[in-house]
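User: Protein folding is very new to me. Would you mind checking the protein record under this note? It all follows right here:
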Amino acid sequence: MPVLIISGPVGVGKTSVAGEIFDQLIARDISHAVIDLDNLGLCWPFGEEDPYNDRMAMRNLADVWRNYAAAGVERLVIARVVETRDELAAYRAAVPGADVVVCQLMADKQTLLGRVARREAGSSQEALARRAVELADSLAKSDVADIVVSTADRELTDIALEVLRTAHWIESD
C-alpha cells in the first residue's frame, strides 16, 4: 500500500500541499485518500508523556484507514511532522502493508515565521512560531526524509507535482 507522508516544520505547507496532491491525483483518476493527521489527534487531555497526542492520532488513523481500505482506496497521503525513522513503525502498524515514503517540505525560517504569523491569529501563534524554528533545525539534521522539496517562493501546483513525480506516483509530463 503506497503511503506518502508529507512532513516538515510548522508553516511549511504540509496541509496545502496534501490538498493539492488530492486534486492532482483526482485529475489523473488515481484512487487515494488524504488525511491531515494532526486533526485526528485533536482532543484534550493529551495522553501521558505524549505532547503531540501521537498515540490517539495513530489509533484514529488505523480506524479511518480501515474504512478507506474497505472502500477500495489504493493510496494514502498523510500530512504530519515526522521527526525520526523510529516513528514510521506506528504508521506501518496503523496501515497494514504500508510502503512509506516521507517527503520533507522545507522553507527558510523567515518564510515559515511569516506563514505562521498569517495563519495563526490565536493564542497558539507564539508557540507555533517557536516550534517552526525548532523543527526546521531538527529536521535539517535528521535522516527521516526520502524526498526533500522546497516550498519557498513556489506555486502550490508545482510543489505538489514535484512531490508526486519524485515519489514516482505520477510520470513526468
Notes: The mean pLDDT is 95. The radius of gyration is 16 Å. The chain is about 45% helix and 15% strand.
